[in-house]
Amino acid sequence: MITLSKVKKVYETKANKVTAVKDIDLQINDGEIFGIIGYSGAGKSTLIRLLNGLELPSQGSITVAGHNITQIKGKALRDARKEISMIFQHFNLLWSRTVKENIAFPLEINKVPKSERTKRVDELIKLVGLEGRGDAYPSELSGGQKQRVGIARALANNPKVLLCDEATSALDPQTTDSILDLLVDINERLGLTIVLITHEMHVIRKICHRVAVMEEGQIVEQGEVLEVFRKPQATITRRFVQQVTEPEETRETIEHLIEQYPSGKVIQLTFVGKSTETPLITDVIRSFNINVTILQGKISQTQSGAYGTLFIHLNGSNDEIEKAIHYIREQEVEAEVMGND
Ligand code: ADP
């Protein structure tokens, strides 16, 4: 569906040259939800603007939905761009127009007759769950509802690809989840290919099939989301994975636990997608000659395996504890010994 080959983009200003992306080789499949993650300045926005045909690369070629958008111009490019749509972090709605008018806007531009427009807008309003809100103005809507309008508008012309530019970054966690659910629903129902950029790993984990990790304009790692969570290769990827697996209060928790358990060892287990059930692990550890206590933490079972952090306390001979830790690590569960060794 989307192929990028040796893509590079250099911004030249009078004062200097900035290489925003380079050496990008990427293939995104038909019907896939593909995530691109990176910190600010990594080159994500540049990449998405290149995919949208808003910018031309300095080198390399880009094919989207069968169109080599780096080689076509004028009407051909405009036609190709109708198959590519985008939603934005701050929604980019027209504030003086109602929900219906916002959604109808791309249809108006395409000179779709009024009766057809009305029918299509009604369908879209239903699809994104905005029934009864068609005559509201954006200022009367919540953030999540505004993004639903953005999504409906993006789908108006039946695109083949939906690009999402930090589409949930301005929303609270609960609303983020509902918008992500909607994107999955649209992907499944319409078979639409979705490419999203984000700096939040939980977004990737929740809905993406594959992910590319960007750093300094390059893709440093890419693969199936499950695999990347299980075995992150690059340092930056590990940091992103920890975003999801380590809650903020972890440090305080560790200090508190170490105080409480001065003898033996407090171990932090990090589950990164291996679907081993927690009791299984602790039962097997018990077959070593040590005492095991589950202290606290939370493991959530998702489609792609178990994720989360759990603190356990092991008490016994150093030798047996070593063996138990070795066993845990063999299960692809990270085990970090805290403080008091
Ligand atoms: P991200 O979206 O990951 O934050 P960007 O693609 O916005 O990254 O930026 C990548 C690099 O390219 C940054 O160093 C940024 O300053 C630079 N850059 C982005 N857009 C422009 C532009 N229009 N002109 C000059 N430099 C730019």
Automatic annotation (TrEMBL):
GO terms for biological process: amino acid transport. The keyword Nucleotide-binding applies. GO terms for molecular function: ATP binding; ATP hydrolysis activity. Coiled coil: none annotated. InterPro entries: AAA+_ATPase, ABC_transporter-like_ATP-bd, ABC_transporter-like_CS, ACT-like_dom_sf, MetN_ABC, MetN_ABC_transporter-like, NIL_domain, P-loop_NTPase. Keywords: Amino-acid transport, ATP-binding, Cell membrane, Membrane, Nucleotide-binding, Translocase, Transport. This is Methionine ABC transporter ATP-binding protein. It comes from Fredinandcohnia quinoae.
